[in-house]
Design brief:
mainly alpha
Length: about 200
């Protein structure tokens, strides 16, 4: 009985420590993503940091920024594509804001769904990043995982909805929620790898 209680306390302590690490990483992501084009590199470094933390490996501020710089060298085209996609989304929503557009609710829903699925693929690709992997390979695998792992995709979509709702309610919540979103991406990636083994 005492052992079971001790195991529960230990599990709670480890879970709380991981949550605190996600909040801390959210601050790092926010700082690293300020130029916007660096968002993929920031999330790649964050998920790598959280994976190292949960594996009991070395994980520190310095290692995060080292991984961020490494990721940025290959991720800048992804960042530019992200900015282009965001601009296209903004134009689409501006057009849909006109009352003369037919079937506006349906088109708006489809637009948000496509944007959310694209963000899910991006999160999966960031979670799979290592200095030895190529972004093209990561995106190919992320697309396959998005199709083949609907429960993991649902988790990430839920995380994106919570992130968006939190940011809409209070923009300062972007900081902790970014870390939680990176934590969700890392957890879904690990879960997918465990299922493949």
């Amino acid at each position: 009985m005492a052992t079971a209680a001790g195991d529960r306390r230990r599990a709670f302590g480890e879970g709380f420590a991981l949550f605190a690490e996600c909040l801390l990483v959210g601050t790092w992501i926010t700082l690293a993503a300020l130029p916007v084009v660096t968002i993929p590199a920031a999330f790649a470094a964050a998920t790598k940091h959280l994976n190292a933390h949960t594996n009991g490996e070395a994980a520190s501020w310095r290692l995060f920024w080292s991984d961020y710089r490494t990721a940025w060298r290959s991720a800048w085209p992804v960042g530019l594509a992200l900015i282009g996609a965001a601009a296209l989304l903004a134009v689409n929503l501006t057009v849909l804001a006109q009352e003369s557009v037919p079937y506006r609710p349906g088109f708006a829903l489809a637009t948000f769904l496509v944007a959310a699925l694209a963000a899910t693929v991006l999160l999966r690709a960031c979670a799979a990043w290592t200095p030895a992997t190529k972004w093209r390979t990561n995106f190919s695998q992320a697309l396959a995982d998005t199709r083949e792992d609907p429960s993991g995709t649902g988790i990430l979509l839920g995380g994106l909805i919570v992130f968006a709702a939190s940011a809409w309610a209070l923009w300062l919540l972007i900081v902790p929620m970014a870390g939680c979103l990176a934590g969700a991406a890392a957890a879904v990636h690990r879960r997918r790898l465990d299922r493949k083994e």
